[in-house]
């Protein structure tokens, strides 16, 4: 089955490709905000500023929905940070017949869009903490939604991205193995 990866602010990168290959080595598609262009950002702040100036969350969400609507086969989706937030923004409009499951890692912007009712199963993997808001409060706002499964990781926002200052090898290995096991069942 196709596995789609929706990137964070770093976009398409060798680190994301390596992660995708580790989790789903066969049928993958990567959606990123920069049209597949490899940009070697100096650091996370530069990547954040570039994304904010050149793309924006609403534009990325529209791009994600456009790309997903063009796919004519069932798929699983794994999204990171702003990619997960972009996916969340359009989750009520995803085709239930195509989307098997969505996994969103540390998608912090969903806190501003809690009225969205996803029509597909979404597992939100929350970071251990966030600087700008209370993770427990976010979790309690989402607990009654039947489409949402919440998982609290022991790691910081960005732990799955080798380019992030919060990359954590143990968390990367743990969740890579977890996702690979789930995807192998399909």
Question: Can you describe this structure in just a few lines?
Answer:
It contains six helices and six strands; from the N terminus they run E-H-E-H-H-E-H-E-E-H-E-H. By secondary structure, the chain is an alpha/beta fold.
Describe this structure in words.
- With about 190 residues, this protein is α/β, with parallel strands linked by helices.
- The protein has a single domain, classed as Alpha/Beta hydrolase fold, catalytic domain (Rossmann fold, 3-Layer(aba) Sandwich).
- It contains six helices and six strands.
- Strands 2-1-3-4-5-6 form a six-stranded parallel beta sheet, sandwiched between helices.
- Helix 3 (about 55-70) crosses helix 4 (about 80-90).
- The longest helix is centred in the last third of the chain and has 16 residues, at about 170-185.
- It is globular, with a radius of gyration of 15 Å.
CATH topology: Rossmann fold
- Structure class: alpha/beta
Overall morphology: globular
Alpha carbon gap, first and last residue = 7 Å
CATH homologous superfamily caption: Alpha/Beta hydrolase fold, catalytic domain
Whole-number tally of structural domains: 1
Q: Which CATH architecture would you pick?
A: 3-Layer(aba) Sandwich
How big a fraction of the residues is strand?
Answer: 15-25%
Alpha carbon gyration radius: 15 Å
What top-tier CATH class fits best?
Alpha Beta
Helix count from the secondary structure assignment:
6
Mean pLDDT across all amino acids? 96
Q: Care to count the β-strands?
A: 6
- Order of secondary-structure elements: EHEHHEHEEHEH
């Amino acid at each position: 089955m196709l596995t789609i990866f929706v990137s964070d602010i770093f976009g398409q990168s060798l680190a994301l490709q390596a992660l995708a290959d580790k989790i789903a080595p066969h049928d993958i598609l990567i959606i990123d905000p920069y049209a597949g262009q490899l940009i070697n950002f100096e650091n996370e702040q530069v990547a954040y500023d570039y994304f904010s100036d050149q793309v924006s969350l609403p534009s990325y969400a529209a791009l994600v929905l456009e790309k997903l609507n063009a796919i004519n086969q069932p798929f699983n989706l794994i999204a990171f940070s702003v990619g997960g937030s972009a996916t969340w923004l359009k989750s009520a409009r995803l085709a239930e017949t195509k989307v098997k499951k969505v996994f969103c890692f540390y998608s912090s912007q969903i806190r501003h869009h809690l009225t969205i009712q996803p029509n597909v199963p979404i597992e939100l993997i929350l970071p251990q903490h966030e600087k700008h808001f209370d993770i427990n409060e976010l979790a309690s706002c989402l607990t009654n939604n039947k489409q949402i499964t919440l998982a609290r990781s022991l790691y910081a926002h960005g732990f799955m991205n080798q380019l992030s200052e919060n990359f954590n090898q143990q968390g990367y290995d743990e969740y890579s193995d977890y996702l690979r096991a789930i995807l192998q069942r399909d």
